[in-house]
Design brief:
Blueprint: H1 3-9, E1 15-16, H2 20-23, E2 30-35, H3 47-58, E3 62-67, H4 89-103, E4 115-118, H5 120-123, H6 128-134, H7 141-146, H8 148-154, H9 160-163, H10 165-180, E5 184-188, H11 192-206, E6 211-215, E7 228-229, E8 232-233, H12 243-251, H13 258-265, H14 270-277, H15 284-300, H16 302-317, E9 327-330, E10 334-335, H17 336-343, H18 349-357, E11 361-363, E12 366-367, E13 374-375, E14 385-390, E15 394-400
Parallel strand pairs: 2-3, 2-5, 3-4, 5-6, 9-15
Antiparallel strand pairs: 1-6, 7-8, 10-13, 11-12, 11-14, 14-15
Helix pairs in contact: 10-11, 12-15, 12-16, 13-14, 13-15, 15-16, 17-18
Length: about 400
């Protein structure tokens, strides 16, 4: 199979310019994907482009991961009903450094294999008048207004700052073509208009062919946006989302999503995925365990995935030791509402109050209905710990703090 066939068979391909299939047959192709540093962590929704990059790199092509230190100062209007909050230069730099390390878990940046760049290097020094004369003259405002990312915002209002984003993204492509010979940009389907603007700019300025390929904008079988839960984003940073909770996200996906996610978010051969797809009834849980373990291993490493798997067995299957569960240290006595909020089992004390009143909270297996309940040293087991759970799927092991 060609790498294009691999991407298509695994569900990565949505739209592409004519000639992409032939382009991907070249011995070595330089291509890029952009990531704007709007937060200090990427989330599971970012895994679609990252995994696609990894597949192309495994096929011998050279990825360029562009972290948008420059475009991050503008904010991409694509898919947004309102303007993004402008970030300070210090916050952008912090976010940028965090994201760089996360992308490096999936693809190699060894010399000759891949590269990580920051568009602030060429966008921030630009002379505005020279930029308008060299680049701006190639863009028709009439055409820009027809792009989906712009049309969707015209009724609510689109600032001139955001309107420039399409030109800046197109210029990124031109700059990477000049610096790296980059001839392919990949990204989410909401980026199609911006990406095609880049191919047009390269054709107009350099007289060369360049191409674009988009990925589908994923939603789960329930209609939720990929990488989002009731408790927020599924972050790739373990400081934002513990590895155990990351594992739990994958093992608890809807049955209808398991095979699709195995194709997108693991490197398992399609033949193995077809075998897992044949499972029915309660056996589908085995396919979910494979998905959770593989996805967690790729993001956080095999040892972390094994610990998360052991914690899940201890919490839900009656196997392993409770010592493998996620831990939270606190002093005793401690109010239940405060514990639930501080440990992350609930988003806030008001959320904790609702969960207690709804009968979702258990301490040492006993349902707690009193919102003023306190955990004391008497709650601890012989190992100096107590298991606190929210519903059937979230449990922590609370231990005495120093």
């Amino acid at each position: 199979m060609s790498v294009f066939d691999i991407l298509e068979s695994r569900g990565f391909v949505q739209q592409y310019t004519s000639g992409v299939m032939d382009l991907l047959r070249d011995n070595v192709l330089s291509f890029y994907v952009g990531f704007d540093p709007t937060a200090d962590s990427l989330h599971a929704g970012s895994l679609v482009p990252i995994m696609a990059m990894a597949h192309l790199q495994r096929a011998g092509h050279q990825p360029i991961a562009l972290v948008g230190g420059g475009t991050g100062m503008v904010g991409d209007p694509s898919g947004k009903e309102e303007a993004r909050q402008l970030l300070t230069a210090e916050r952008i730099e912090h976010n940028k450094q965090s994201i760089k390390g996360q992308i490096g878990r999936f693809i190699s940046f060894e010399p000759g294999k891949g590269e990580l760049v920051d568009n602030a290097d060429w966008l921030l020094p630009l002379n505005y008048i020279e930029f308008l004369r060299e680049i701006g003259r190639h863009f028709s405002v009439n055409t820009m207004l027809t792009k989906a990312s712009v049309k969707a915002r015209l009724e609510r209002g689109l600032s001139f700052l955001e309107f420039n984003y399409q030109i800046l993204q197109a210029y990124d492509f031109l700059e990477l073509y000049r610096r790296n010979g980059c001839r392919l940009q990949m990204g989410g389907d909401d980026q199609w208009g911006n990406m095609v603007a880049g191919t047009d700019l390269i054709r107009r300025v350099e007289g060369a062919d360049a191409h674009a390929l988009t990925f589908p904008l994923l939603t789960t079988a329930t209609g939720a946006k990929m990488g989002k839960t009731a408790n927020g984003a599924v972050w790739l940073d373990s400081n934002r989302l513990p590895v155990y909770d990351y594992y739990q996200y994958w093992i608890n996906v809807d049955d209808r999503d398991v095979i699709r996610f195995l194709k997108l978010f693991t490197f398992l051969p399609l033949e193995r995925i077809e075998e897992l797809g044949a499972l029915e009834g309660a056996a589908i849980r085995d396919a979910k365990r494979v998905l959770a373990f593989e996805a967690t291993s790729i993001c956080h490493g095999k040892e972390a995935a094994e610990r998360a798997e052991a914690g899940a067995k201890a919490a839900f299957a009656g196997g392993g030791s409770t010592a493998d569960m996620p831990k939270h240290q606190t002093s005793f006595p401690v109010g239940l509402l405060a514990l639930l909020a501080d440990s992350g089992l609930c988003q806030s004390r008001s959320d904790a109050r609702r969960q207690v009143q709804g009968g979702a909270i258990k301490v040492a297996g006993e349902k707690i209905s009193a919102i003023d309940f306190e955990l004391t040293s008497e709650c601890l087991d012989s190992e100096g710990a107590v298991v606190v759970s929210r519903g059937k799927k979230r449990k922590i092991r609370v231990i005495r703090g120093l």
